[in-house]
Specification:
Shape: elongated
Number of helices: 20
Oligomer: single chain
Largest sheet: 5 strands, mixed
Strand order of the largest sheet: 13-15-16-18-17
Number of strands: 18
Structural class: alpha/beta
Radius of gyration: 42 Å
């Protein structure tokens, strides 16, 4: 058997949806997923054609030999057509004699049945077992099974029966009967036959390709004369395409008691049988394997009929032929063909992947969120039987992490959450921008008349306070409230300002602790700090950021009128730094959490707050390209009460670049 020189199966990229069905159905795991595209790795492929069969979108295509056969037919040489014994299952609407007539019309002569080659092979197996009763063998009629052993279980090569397949046996018979210069074309259900024996068979067509060749040539059953198959006529070799057919043709009994003969078919069946045979878990003297569920289910079949209907057609054709066969002629043909050599050799083509280090496998599993055996669901959605096999395939460049469905779902959830956060952030930013414009307009309009009121109130107070104490008290009230209005207007301007941040390198913990320490601390409140920053230096506008610290610390103090603890903590990671202000106060009610950064919203008693402190804080943090979040708990039954504000900032940022730290809108969900 020669190495595959040209890709036998290829992917049609525009049709591939990367559903991983081909990966799952490939016994050799010869499908590589790369950048979301499935492709067949030629050197690993065993040409079983499973990927072609299971791809409902037709994204996997086998190599087509139609033009090569047309060239051969036009060459002037005698070209023989050898029809696989599964043909009755694929041409139910065409009688065998009509099919031969159609092949003759194409230019094939002679037209023979490979079932005769199967008769020879069956006889050879019977003799092999008779002469070597102590040996164990693996039947080699399925080329995909042979290739699998050569590539993935080369230790079993000594057990491969040294007998050619029925196709090769028939090719040698045809040249023996019709001349050595006769070109032979095999026509059957198998893709793997295309590369099985190029030195023995000139071309290989699947039944699907033959149908297309008839269509191109305009040949229809009702337009041709009937004709008979050319000799030699087969015997029981006609049942070869059915699982166990070779045993019946060879008159070898599959004794379930002795277990000397074992048959297995299908992707899972033949793999498990080879594994147990190699491990000496079975005492079978002959292991007959088919990669498909019998050749009648091969990927080159065009029929869509169910398996047992196909079996019935093979059985019916075999019965009819056996009733007509002249066994004297058959015996003569077998004697003449007995001079044909049926021996073969095999070559090791080890394609096994080396075993990776366990640590490397675990690293891949951890990347996909699988840290314990319970996390390894082994659901098979990726196309591999286990998560560990998938991880090994990733290490070998055959697979991608995104093939894992649970991992992909988790990643999708993260993306959805990020998009939701971004959407909220955009809405909040839009709302803040509108409020800022409104606040700026109001502040500028109110500031001038307010200044006049305040000026005249103080002037009158200076002039009349001695003369009229009652009037003086009224003037003081006017001045006090005017001053309060002035502070509100100043806060509005702070909230609405679009000042450029003037950054300079600042020792953040030292700076923030100094600002907080200068504020008056209520009785019974403990002030503690926790600095875990590896590098304390941060680029920020300390004049503006001082206001952030003041607002957060003052709010915390006001929430702890009965005493408590204020924690000011610092941490950093790479280019991000964070500062937390945590109090043990009464907390913020859950229904108010989404409003705390809005201008004029306050939970303080009337006249005790303007509702601008956190709005200004939010604006300053955003101008620093950072984010601010808050969590709070008001229910002692759920844990300690209090509120924690977390401000996250980039350590350094280029003001000419876009945002590098997008924390999204404030996360103000209630928490502990």
């Amino acid at each position: 058997m020669t190495a595959i020189s040209e890709a036998l199966v290829q992917t049609v990229p525009e049709k591939c949806r990367v559903c991983y069905t081909c990966v799952r159905e490939c016994p050799a795991k010869a499908i590589r997923i790369q950048e979301g595209q499935a492709e067949v790795v030629t050197e690993r492929c065993i040409a079983c054609g499973n990927c072609v069969k299971v791809c409902t979108r037709g994204a996997k295509k086998a190599r087509v030999n139609i033009s090569d056969v047309e060239t051969l037919l036009a060459s002037g040489r005698r070209v023989a057509a050898m029809i696989a014994p599964s043909f009755p299952a694929d041409f139910p609407g065409i009688t065998p004699r009509k099919l031969v007539g159609m092949l003759n019309k194409l230019g094939f002569h002679p037209v023979t049945e490979v079932a005769f080659g199967a008769d020879l092979v069956a006889h050879a197996y019977r003799e092999l077992l008779r002469k070597n009763p102590d040996r164990r063998y693996i039947a080699v009629n399925c080329p995909a099974v042979v290739t699998y052993v050569e590539k993935y279980m080369p230790q079993l090569i000594p057990f491969l029966a040294p007998i050619v397949s029925p196709m090769v046996a028939e090719a040698r018979v045809v040249r023996r009967f019709y001349g050595e210069d006769t070109a032979v074309v095999f026509i059957g259900p198998c893709i793997a036959k295309k590369d099985e024996a190029p030195a023995e068979v000139d071309q290989v067509l699947t039944f699907i390709e033959l149908q297309e060749l008839f269509r191109k040539a305009g040949i229809h059953p009702d337009q041709v004369d009937e004709a008979s198959f050319n000799p030699p006529t087969p015997g029981l070799g006609m049942v070869f395409p059915i699982s166990g057919g070779m045993l019946q043709a060879a008159d070898i009994k599959e004794d379930l008691v002795s277990g000397d003969i074992v048959t297995a078919e299908g992707r899972a069946g033949f793999l498990e049988a080879l594994k147990e045979f190699g491990n000496m878990d079975m005492d079978a003297k002959l292991l007959e394997l088919l990669c498909c569920d019998g050749c009648i289910m091969g990927p080159g079949m065009s029929t869509k009929e169910a398996i047992f209907r196909r079996r019935a057609r093979i059985s019916q054709y075999s019965r009819n032929k056996l009733n007509e066969i002249n066994f004297n002629h058959w015996n003569v043909a077998m004697e003449r063909a007995g001079e044909v050599a049926l021996d073969r050799e095999f070559a090791e083509r080890d394609t096994r992947l080396s075993s990776p280090e366990e640590d490397d496998v675990n690293e891949i599993l951890h990347r996909m969120g699988k840290f314990t055996p319970e996390d390894e669901l082994n659901c098979g959605a990726c196309g591999y039987d286990t998560c560990r096999e998938h991880a090994i395939a990733i290490l070998k460049g055959l697979a991608e992490s995104e093939m894992c469905l649970p991992y992909a779902i988790d990643q999708l959830k993260l993306t959805v959450d990020e998009l939701a956060g971004t959407k909220v952030a955009l809405k909040h930013a839009e709302k803040m921008a509108g409020m800022g414009q409104l606040a700026a307009g109001i502040a500028h309009e109110v500031n001038n008349p307010l200044g006049v009121v305040l000026m005249y109130a103080h002037t009158l107070l200076d002039e009349r306070s001695a003369e009229d104490p009652e009037l003086a008290e009224d003037l003081r009230t006017i001045a006090v409230h005017a001053d309060r209005c002035k502070k509100i207007v100043a806060g509005l301007l702070d909230f609405a300002r679009q000042n450029k941040v003037s950054r300079r390198e600042t020792d953040l913990p030292a700076f923030a602790i100094k600002v907080a320490s200068d504020l008056p601390r209520p009785d019974g409140v403990e002030f503690i700090t926790d600095n875990r920053m590896k590098d304390p230096m941060v680029s920020l506008d300390d004049d503006q950021f001082a206001q952030v610290v003041i607002n957060l610390v003052q709010n915390a103090y006001q929430a702890m009128s009965g005493g408590g603890r204020l924690l000011l903590s610092f941490d950093d990671r790479d280019n991000k730094v964070s500062i937390k202000v945590a109090d043990t106060g009464t907390g913020i009610e859950p229904e108010n959490m989404k409003k705390i950064f809005e201008p004029f919203f306050t939970t303080k008693p009337r006249g005790k707050g303007t509702g601008l402190g956190l709005a200004v804080t939010y604006g300053i943090v955003k101008m620093h390209r950072g984010g601010i979040t808050a969590v709070s708990n008001t229910d002692p039954g759920k844990g300690p009460t209090g509120t924690t504000f977390t401000v996250t900032l980039p350590r350094r940022v280029n003001e000419d670049e876009g945002r590098i730290d997008n924390e999204g809108a404030p996360d103000n969900s209630p928490g502990g």
